[in-house]
Write a structure and sequence with these properties.
The protein is of the alpha/beta class. The chain folds into two domains: about 400 residues, Alkaline Phosphatase, subunit A (3-Layer(aba) Sandwich), CATH 3.40.720; about 45 residues, no CATH class. The chain is built from 13 helices and twelve strands. The strands form two sheets. Strands 1, 5, 6, 7, 8, 9, 10, 11 and 12 form a nine-stranded mixed sheet that branches. The protein has a three-stranded antiparallel sheet with strand order 2-4-3. Strand 3 and strand 4 form a beta hairpin. Helix 4 crosses helix 11, helix 8 packs across helix 9 and helix 10 runs parallel beside helix 11. The radius of gyration is 23 Å and the shape is globular.
Length: about 475
């Protein structure tokens, strides 16, 4: 077979195609860690304080976000009530079902669900904004007429949990890809961290597509992970020779994983296990240096997950971290039934957990360095199925942190009327997204340190929306969402 030379740009372009078109092969390779080497340019951290982190909260199941952020000016609220029917939240009930937020642009006003008191407070304080009518898109679709024409590319498996939850993580809606947005960022920027054994991507929810790259994958821990229990469990201290047995066991495992094997898969597994053991040692040292936080976290699993993330950020220097991306799942949002009761129970958990994490970032002096955002499979139908809502498309998400433009509703909040509405795709009230997932991730990636010339590797469809290297005006009349001021 003839060999050929390939430059870095060409490699990145072909790797993007491989991420889209070779899922079956890549999945098996990823499982063994035999990843193609990415020809990334070195990144130099000239400022020791140049730390940035992102925290992605997956609201798994498809959150009904049209009751998270509700329009309350007279015309838009009337359309909301008429469409939502039994699912509509009242402006006049006692106790209140809606909490007004400090926002009035052109007479447009909004409220949040009454269970989101602390979200309201953070919005009013400038620490949080909403992303309106955002969803997975392959290319811009202006209205229902374009959607119905059949000339526009539509995400694979639209309204499917498995497909849409995947596409929010990979930003490749035309394919069932195994490689995610944060994974591709790590492929490019992992060398910004000084301890290679610790991945830039850390998961509190196990294996996930968002953090899987061509070269780097996530490092998984749990909310209960401590310096004492990380890694291999030692023999019980009740045994007189516990220390001796533990040492013998660890030496045997080390010998096996460091051995050279003729079989490439055995060699790969050994190499990965050896790297994992080294990373455990590094992580143990970091966790030993965690100081208790003064911020009080609730007992919910989500709050405890975010507490663990805050602790890890507090000892980032022991992990050699200048860049980190965290991933956590808060599931149970598939409310085909009892949507009002379920949200009344679940939204306060989300609101409190995000606010507690924001407080912790302030406490450890990292608030200006960390951005937290929510994602979900999809939003839900505006109309009721009787007691719940069903799978839909565009919805509202939240973004929080010191660096962002706060107290804003970013993007375009659509009319919620079922008639004369070019964003409504059906009698059930399924909203065509006006902002793409790519546009959100593009601004995050550029802030995080991805070069504009490398953005198409992280987001293979980004040039369908805009090219960051194009002179103004950019294609498709794109204007940045404005996440960062």
């Amino acid at each position: 077979m003839a060999s050929r030379k390939i430059n870095r740009r060409a490699f990145l372009g072909e790797a993007s195609c491989a991420a889209v078109g070779s899922m079956a092969f890549l999945s098996s390779v990823l499982n063994l860690g035999a990843i193609n080497t990415l020809a990334a340019r070195p990144h130099i951290i000239s400022n020791p304080g140049d730390y940035k982190a992102m925290v992605c909260i997956l609201l798994a199941g498809g959150c009904d976000t049209h009751n998270v952020l509700v329009p309350t000016n007279a015309t838009d609220y009337a359309a909301y009530v008429a469409t939502r029917g039994s699912l509509a939240l009242s402006q006049t009930s006692n106790p209140a079902q809606l909490l007004p937020i400090n926002y009035n642009i052109g007479g447009k006003t909004y409220s949040v669900h009454s269970g989101m008191t602390r979200i309201k407070d953070m919005f009013n304080a400038g620490d949080l904004s909403f992303l309106a009518n955002i969803g997975t898109l392959i290319e811009p679709i202006a209205n229902k007429t374009e959607y119905d024409s059949g000339l526009k590319k539509i995400p694979l498996g639209l309204y499917s949990h498995s497909d849409q939850i995947m596409q929010w993580q990979t930003s490749v809606p035309q394919s069932r890809s195994a490689v995610g947005v944060a994974g591709r960022m790590a492929d490019l920027l992992q060398d910004m961290n000084t301890i290679p054994e610790i991945s830039m991507n850390i998961s509190l929810s196990g294996k996930n597509r968002f953090q899987s790259g061509n070269m780097f994958n996530e490092y998984s821990i749990s909310r209960s992970t401590t310096a004492a229990n990380i890694g291999l469990t030692p023999f019980s201290s009740s045994l007189s020779d516990a220390g001796y047995k533990t040492a013998i066991r660890n030496t045997a495992i080390k010998s096996m994983v460091e051995q050279e094997y003729a079989n490439v898969f055995q060699n790969t597994i050994g190499s990965l296990t050896s790297k994992s053991m080294k990373s455990i040692d590094k992580f143990r040292v970091a966790l030993e240096n965690v100081n208790p936080l003064n911020t009080v976290f609730s007992t919910s699993n989500l709050s405890q997950d975010l507490k663990k993330i805050a602790e890890i950020i507090s000892v980032k220097s022991f992990l050699g971290a200048n860049r980190q991306i965290f991933f956590v799942t808060y599931g149970g949002w598939d409310h085909h039934d009892n949507v009002l009761g379920s949200q009344a129970a679940m939204l306060p958990v989300l609101s409190n957990a995000m606010a507690e994490f924001n407080d912790a970032m302030t406490e450890i002096g990292q608030k200006e360095k960390v951005v937290t955002f929510t994602i979900s499979d999809f939003a839900r139908t505006l109309t009721s199925n009787g007691n719940g809502s069903d799978h839909a498309w565009g919805g509202n998400q939240m973004i929080m942190g010191g660096p962002i433009t706060g107290s804003e509703i970013l993007g375009t909040y659509p009319s919620l009327s079922l008639v004369n509405n070019d964003k409504n795709l059906s009698s059930r009230g399924r909203m065509l997204p006006s902002t793409s997932v790519d546009e959100l991730y593009a601004e995050l990636a550029l802030w995080y340190g991805v070069a504009p010339s490398d953005l198409s590797y992280v987001l293979p469809n980004i040039c369908n929306f805009y090219s960051p290297t194009c002179p103004s005006p950019v294609p498709n009349n794109y204007m940045p969402i404005g996440i960062f001021s």
